[in-house]
């Protein structure tokens, strides 16, 4: 399966594993606009809320 939603699920799972390992200083840097939008949508952010995130 290859979709932004699958990418979000994989990244979320990886972050959860790293947190359970109690690793410190973990940073997630996303630069693919499609992936970022899919993540925000998966989190339930409206279009207006997503726009505000990108305006930060």
TrEMBL record:
Gene3D superfamilies linked: Bira Bifunctional Protein, Domain 2 (3.30.930.10)
Domain Class II Histidinyl-tRNA synthetase (HisRS)-like catalytic core, chain residue ranges per copy: 2-55
Matches recorded under InterPro entries: aa-tRNA-synth_II/BPL/LPL (IPR045864), HisRS-like_core (IPR041715)
One Pfam family, short name: tRNA-synt_His
Protein name: Class II Histidinyl-tRNA synthetase (HisRS)-like catalytic core domain-containing protein
């Amino acid at each position: 399966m290859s979709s932004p939603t699958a990418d979000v699920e994989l990244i979320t799972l990886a972050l959860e594993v790293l947190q359970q390992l109690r690793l410190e200083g973990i940073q997630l840097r996303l630069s693919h606009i499609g992936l970022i939008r899919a993540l925000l949508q998966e989190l339930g952010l409206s279009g207006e809320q997503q726009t505000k995130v990108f305006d930060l």
